[in-house]
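<instruction>
Derive structure tokens from the sequence
<data>
Labelled lines for chain and fold
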Amino acid sequence: MNDLPGLRTRIDALDTELLRLLNERATLAREIGVIKTREDLPIYSPDREMKLLRSLVERSNGPLRPESIRAIYREIMSASLALENDVVIASFGSPGSPSHRAALGKFGSSVRYQNLSTVVEVFGAVSKNQADCGVVPLEDPEAGFSMATFDELSDTDLAVCAEIETGESEEGARFLVIGRHVNSPTDADATLLMLRLDDRPGALVTALEPFRQLQVNLSQFASRPARKGSGDLLFFVQAEGHRNHLQEAGLLRELSKNCRSVKILGSFPRIRP
């Protein structure tokens, strides 16, 4: 049996090497931050984050579990973000609220958080460049979809750049990360779209036909009356694929034939590939 002092000595040596490597990584992250600021690139890159986490899990031979690897690197990436810039994440609700906890799980403990009392304020903080990203509720298993979030998405120029899911089962709550930049494609994306339709029988069936014809899977569906007294209906659908690929396939062109308008709300890496 290996002796305890000897094992601890080996761990101490590994921790020293790990610390050296983490500081080396942090130095590179700070240099990346300078480049991002100079070239006006987004500080937070969900596509890069997802590719890195998937790659790390695939390359690991254990015994660390995938969820442990993701948790460790979540904090490493959070520390790197904080070194790149003074990153601010706006979230709906007071500290400890569901949106704030979801934001902490996504961005880690090293960035700054701004807790706001309404979804409108979160969208406003991001659009006014007072926050780098915002976290707002999408769906709760008990309360259903957040109509306040859909109302803001219908009017904003911001983009959905990531999705957060809390809970271990299919009944977990879901949140959206909103930002000012459009994501690059990964190999497993989803796109949230808003379809504006006349409120008449059969309008939705006709509008959704292009998804069937082009074999584009839908994984989410919600509806909302349009604001400002128009009488139109807004339908929010989540389609498989990045906006670039959907445009290349002709989906948006076909949707426009039977919708009063079509708005891409954002493309982001899928939680489940």
Observations:
- The chain has a mean pLDDT of 88.
- The chain has two domains: 42-179, 189-269.
- The radius of gyration is 21 Å.
- The domain at 189-269 is CATH 3.30.70.260 (Alpha-Beta Plaits).
